[in-house]
């Protein structure tokens, strides 16, 4: 389909250049699939003014220019300036397998993809699901279209939280609880520290922060509670290499990585690199020196900052502090170091960083700094809307979170109940597999099927719904096809070439041919919901085909052709779901 659309666009552009001259062609001529036609062009409405002709007249020229293409059966001009193209059935049949081929648009290019990035010493919770599964889907999609992808898990393994955690470890640790559930106990003592800190602040009349920022590098106020002073002292010792504190810090990382890897394995998520903030510590002094040497940063009251102006950076933003007056470094410094390291090591053409919407300003600043340093890679902040509970935001500091593991367990339990109710004959082992595949798929698809920039209010019913545009709906379409194939195979039937297409068959072929277009759009826009929408549409087109076009009872040549269609739909559904990190089952 890609090639056809380009050929039609080129033929139409050539006709306009011949008629009006290249200088008047203000925008490219674009043909694309449309609900109103097999292929449609709306460019005439944008060219009318520059060409000095009515859009309908321009559309007529475009229609004439493509009418002779061997794929085109009919062209039609529609108000206010559309060109609608109907394709020959024979062309559709001959190009069916184009649905299985992606253009290698990323060949020879490397993408660094930064996603998931949980904080060490805290269990992964439902707030981590968005970055993790969005990043994993993007990794798979980008690789499908030819990019070399470096998946980097940039762990939160450094900063103020570790001074607090070391104090909490020494004050509150329950050794037996830690032996049973290390990360759960680390969370408990961290929350207890937070509660005690709040109580001390209240006693001193110090305002209590309402957010969950564990990288609070602001100077200690004169009335800082004793607990916070103690935490800062332990952090200074850690940063100075105190053996006892460093050993504790490494232990926190080790037990956290065991927990993270267990969750990642369950989710089918993997990384090429795990380079946390601490990895860049040795590069921070040189990073600030480079910022000063290039004039990117400047001294300010003993500190070092980057100032931003509209003229230089496209927008006036608050300054970025990269070195404090006491010589300490910050989160932004680490990110600049990570950016330069990635460019030096992998020379990527694109760098995608997947985080929530709250970090938009930070990454606008970071990307402006990168441009000043001469970094030419395309820098993309793939931000997503926050996930909230109905009663408001959740916070690890306050302890009001739903663990990611609890979410996945609940999903599998609900999916198992549905599987047993719909197919009581399934053996227990198969029920368990269906529950795993459908349950985890439901959680992933529920998130990925929404535009990533939307705010999500988490409820169990919405997350695990089995109705509408959901993973189970698409998975069931695949399982239904596999059932058809098994039954028809018993008759000795095999797939064969397409014959004259019924309307539902034709619609199905057209939908199949849009698959590579959807995947490529996701690769370029980092919006996986486009692929979800496509798979839902394909499953719907198959449902219509299944109702209108019998397979098993059709005469042999037609049955063979319909088996071919079934095979291609099953292949695309399976591949498309796999790009989203979702599995399929043979029976549901």
Write a short abstract of this structure:
The protein is 53% helix and 10% strand.
Describe this structure in words.
With 588 residues, the protein is an alpha/beta fold. Among the domains are: 2-87, Arginyl tRNA synthetase N-terminal domain (Gyrase A, domain 2, 2-Layer Sandwich), CATH 3.30.1360.70; 155-256, no CATH class. It is built from 22 helices and 13 strands. It has helices at 2-20, 44-51, 55-66, 89-94, 129-144, 160-172, 175-180, 182-204, 226-239, 243-267, 284-293, 310-313, 331-346, 360-372, 404-422, 428-448, 460-463, 471-489, 503-513, 515-525, 529-548, 556-579, and strands spanning 31-34, 37-41, 72-78, 82-87, 110-114, 148-152, 298-300, 303-306, 320-323, 350-356, 378-384, 387-388, 456-457. Strands 1-2-4-3 form a four-stranded antiparallel β-sheet. Strands 6-5-10-11 form a four-stranded parallel β-sheet, sandwiched between helices. A hairpin with a 2-residue loop joins strand 1 (31-34) and strand 2 (37-41). The protein is flat, with a radius of gyration of 29 Å. The two termini are 33 Å apart. The model is unreliable at 211-215 (pLDDT under 50).
Mean pLDDT: 92
Measured distance between first and last alpha carbons: 33 Å
Overall form: flat
Largest sheet composition: 4 strands, antiparallel
What class do helices, strands and sheet pairing give? alpha/beta
Strand percentage lies at: 5-15%
| Poorly predicted regions | 211-215
Which bin fits the share of residues in helices?
40-55%
Query: Strand order of the main beta sheet, please?
Result: 1-2-4-3
Per DSSP E runs of 2 or more residues, the count of β-strands stands at: 13
* Rg, alpha carbons: 29 Å
What count of helical segments does DSSP give? 22
């Amino acid at each position: 389909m890609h090639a056809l659309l380009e050929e039609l666009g080129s033929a139409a552009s050539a006709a306009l250049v011949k008629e009006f001259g290249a200088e008047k062609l203000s925008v490219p001529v674009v043909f694309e699939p449309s609900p109103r036609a097999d292929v449609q062009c709306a460019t005439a409405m944008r060219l009318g003014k520059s060409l000095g002709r009515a859009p309908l007249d321009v559309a007529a020229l475009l229609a004439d220019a493509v009418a002779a293409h061997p794929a085109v059966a009919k062209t039609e001009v529609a108000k206010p300036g559309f060109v609608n193209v109907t394709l020959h059935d024979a062309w559709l049949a001959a190009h069916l397998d184009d649905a299985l081929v992606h253009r290698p648009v990323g060949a020879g290019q490397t993408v660094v993809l930064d996603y998931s990035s949980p904080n060490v010493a805290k269990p992964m919770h439902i707030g981590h699901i968005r970055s993790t599964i969005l990043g994993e889907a993007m990794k798979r999609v980008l690789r499908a279209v030819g990019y070399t992808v470096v998946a980097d898990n940039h762990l939160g393994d450094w900063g103020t939280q570790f001074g607090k955690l070391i104090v909490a470890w020494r004050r509150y640790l329950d050794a037996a609880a830690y032996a049973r559930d290390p990360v759960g106990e680390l969370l408990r003592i961290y929350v207890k520290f937070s509660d005690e800190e709040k109580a001390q602040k209240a006693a001193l009349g110090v305002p209590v922060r309402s957010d969950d920022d564990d990288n609070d590098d602001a100077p200690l106020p004169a009335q800082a509670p004793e607990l916070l002073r103690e935490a800062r002292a332990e952090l200074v010792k850690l940063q100075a290499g105190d053996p006892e504190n460093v050993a504790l810090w490494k232990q926190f990382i080790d037990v956290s990585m065991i927990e993270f890897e267990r969750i990642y394995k369950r989710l089918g998520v993997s990384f090429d690199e795990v380079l946390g903030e601490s990895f860049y510590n040795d590069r921070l002094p040189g990073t600030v020196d480079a910022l000063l040497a290039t004039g990117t940063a400047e001294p300010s009251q003993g500190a070092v900052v980057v100032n931003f102006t509209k003229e230089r950076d496209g927008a006036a933003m608050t300054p970025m502090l990269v070195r404090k007056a006491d010589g300490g470094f910050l989160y932004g410094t680490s990110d600049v170091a990570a950016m330069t390291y990635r460019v030096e090591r992998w020379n990527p053409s694109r760098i995608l960083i997947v985080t929530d919407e709250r970090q938009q300003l930070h990454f606008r600043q970071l990307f402006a700094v990168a441009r000043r340093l001469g970094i030419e890679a395309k820098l993309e902040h793939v931000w997503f809307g926050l996930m909230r509970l109905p009663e408001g935001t959740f916070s690890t500091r306050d302890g009001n979170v739903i663990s990611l593991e609890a979410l996945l367990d609940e999903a599998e339990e609900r999916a198992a109940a549905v599987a047993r109710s719909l197919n009581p004959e399934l053996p227990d082992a198969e029920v368990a597999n269906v529950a795993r595949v459908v349950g985890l798929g439901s959680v992933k698809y529920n998130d990925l099927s929404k535009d990533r920039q939307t705010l999500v209010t988490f409820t169990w019913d919405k997350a695990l719904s089995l109705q509408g545009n959901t993973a189970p709906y698409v998975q069931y379409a695949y399982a239904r096809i596999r059932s058809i194939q098994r039954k028809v195979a018993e008759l000795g039937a095999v797939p064969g070439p397409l014959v004259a297409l019924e309307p539902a068959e034709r619609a199905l072929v057209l939908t199949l041919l849009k698959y590579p277009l959807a995947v490529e759009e996701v690769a370029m826009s980092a919006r996986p919901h486009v692929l979800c929408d496509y798979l839902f549409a394909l499953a719907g087109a198959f449902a219509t085909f299944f109702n209108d076009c019998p397979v098993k009872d059709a005469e042999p040549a037609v049955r063979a052709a319909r088996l071919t269609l079934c095979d291609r739909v099953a292949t695309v559904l399976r591949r498309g779901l796999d790009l989203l990190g979702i599995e399929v089952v043979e029976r549901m």
